[in-house]
Amino acid sequence: MAAQSDGGGWGGTGEGVGEGVFDGDTEGDCQPLESAAIHICLCCQSAVCYWGCRSNCLGNLGIGGTGVGRGNDLRETRCPPEEGLWLDCLWLILALLVFFWDVGTDLLLAADYYTRQDYLWFGLTLFLVLVPSMVVQILSFRWFIQDYSGDKGGEREKLTRRGPAEQRWIYPGTDRVRVASVWLWQITIHILQLGQVWRYIRTLYLGIQSHRMKELKEAQRRFYWAMMFEYADVNMLRLLETFLESAPQLVLQLCIMIQQNRAETLQCISSLGSLLSLSWVLASYHKLLRDSRDDQRSLSYRGALLHLLWRLFTISSRVLSLALFASLFHLYFGIFVVLHWCGMALWVVHGGTDFCMSRWEEVLFNMVVGIVYIFCWFNVKEGHTRGRMVAYYSVVLAENTLLTGLWYVYRDHADTDNYAVPALCGVYLSFAGGVLVMLLYYGLLHPSHTHPTPASTCCDELLWGNPLPPSATPTPAHLATPSHSDDVIADSCLPVFQVRSEPPTSHHFEGPLIKIDMPRKRYPAWDAHYVDRRLRRTINLLQYLTPTAAGIRYRDRSLLYELLQYESSL
């Protein structure tokens, strides 16, 4: 990992590792520097340093000294909103209650099967609760190990001791008793299968603390960073668990009710909890993913509720058709699920995803998304999703029709006549209702546009990642007539680098700047600092070692010529 002394550029490491900048940066400065990367700007008709300091060229584009733009992906830590704290707390508390509802009713149902000596249903129900929970707890504890003890040789503790005395108590690792107690606590809660519960509680605590630190902006940002990281973790864990536990559990319980030709109260409550858990997690994940990215508009809670209803209806239709088919064709149901999963996973791989930091993690992620696609739509690729959604829901509708049709033909008429027609109506009405709510969501409450971009100019094209073709390059009149000016225009497309003779005297962003030597991941993927634990450790380290909050900047996709000026080991 390398540390750069200013905003001059990225290193050539090629590993996608963040570089901490400990002496500030000049990205938001509106005054041009005399010795920096020079570019002849064709929209403001002047030679200014428009890359190193965001000068009057960017001011003309409406970006100016904000220091936050897509062109260089400079991301200062967001401050939490001043309003809506009670909505955030209520959303988290309800998410925790839905989790307890889902898992608790499944355990009660397993105990009920055991008391009734239905050992097969008891074993399957308990298996679908414990195995996914253990997988999620192992992953959660692995993340804790990477976050808490990922540094080698005690660098974090050494650096912490060099920090201000008033900050040493904030960061873990300064006291052996505290370290031992933290490890003991984490081991205990993960053995008790309560890792997600603890992460929800910690997220709630960090969010409240962030709101309370309104007068201390830097402390507020630190708590907000920690809250966003923790909330992202618990949402990814919940997404994995729901499709490993809640979705199969819902199919199993519906299949049992259809086979036994009766529905117990506890079975209905458990199925409703699993269905609500699936819908809630998808809506929460989608909302948080948008909230975590400054290049996307946030999703309101009204939009999240409409998103939840959309998922509720479509998943209900899908699960009901699967349960009807599985109640008669056990072996063929397994074959169908495997074939559908393989097809969807190959579709995802063919589309190309960029969610993870390594190839094997990406393959594992694609396999998990294939499981999700058994039950519902999940967007994993940037761009217009209309065509892919139409294709997916067309396939799902055809599959639902085939599954329910086979069940209706081969069913036992004497046992199923009383609910056969309502079941078919439930499949198609739920699907139609889900599609209708989806259209309402995308038509009314979906934040369909990214943050507005300035008008199209030559610098705009470079800054926003879409280089102009040579034939479309605007040429001002005073540069077009002489032959020497033509050479100037041609040379203006190439940068001329000069190493800065002295550090800049004015700063817009005064905190450390973490430069990540990779392009920013495209939505709907998480930013790299959410999924790469090394970047998280760097951010958390800088947050507690410096008096100001850290910022993040990713490598620009179009301006790849920026020069590495200074480099030292961190």
Automatic annotation (TrEMBL):
<protein>
    <recommendedName>
        <fullName>XK-related protein</fullName>
    </recommendedName>
</protein>
<keyword id="KW-1133">Transmembrane helix</keyword>
<dbReference type="Pfam" id="PF09815">
    <property type="entry name" value="XK-related"/>
</dbReference>
<feature type="transmembrane region" description="Helical">
    <location>
        <begin position="363"/>
        <end position="380"/>
    </location>
</feature>
<dbReference type="InterPro" id="IPR050895">
    <property type="entry name" value="XK-related_scramblase"/>
</dbReference>
<dbReference type="GO" id="GO:0005886">
    <property type="term" value="C:plasma membrane"/>
</dbReference>
<dbReference type="GO" id="GO:0070782">
    <property type="term" value="P:phosphatidylserine exposure on apoptotic cell surface"/>
</dbReference>
<keyword id="KW-1003">Cell membrane</keyword>
<feature type="transmembrane region" description="Helical">
    <location>
        <begin position="90"/>
        <end position="109"/>
    </location>
</feature>
<feature type="transmembrane region" description="Helical">
    <location>
        <begin position="419"/>
        <end position="444"/>
    </location>
</feature>
<dbReference type="InterPro" id="IPR018629">
    <property type="entry name" value="XK-rel"/>
</dbReference>
<comment type="similarity">
    <text>Belongs to the XK family.</text>
</comment>
<keyword id="KW-0812">Transmembrane</keyword>
<dbReference type="GO" id="GO:1902742">
    <property type="term" value="P:apoptotic process involved in development"/>
</dbReference>
<keyword id="KW-0472">Membrane</keyword>
<feature type="transmembrane region" description="Helical">
    <location>
        <begin position="121"/>
        <end position="145"/>
    </location>
</feature>
<dbReference type="GO" id="GO:0043652">
    <property type="term" value="P:engulfment of apoptotic cell"/>
</dbReference>
<feature type="transmembrane region" description="Helical">
    <location>
        <begin position="392"/>
        <end position="410"/>
    </location>
</feature>
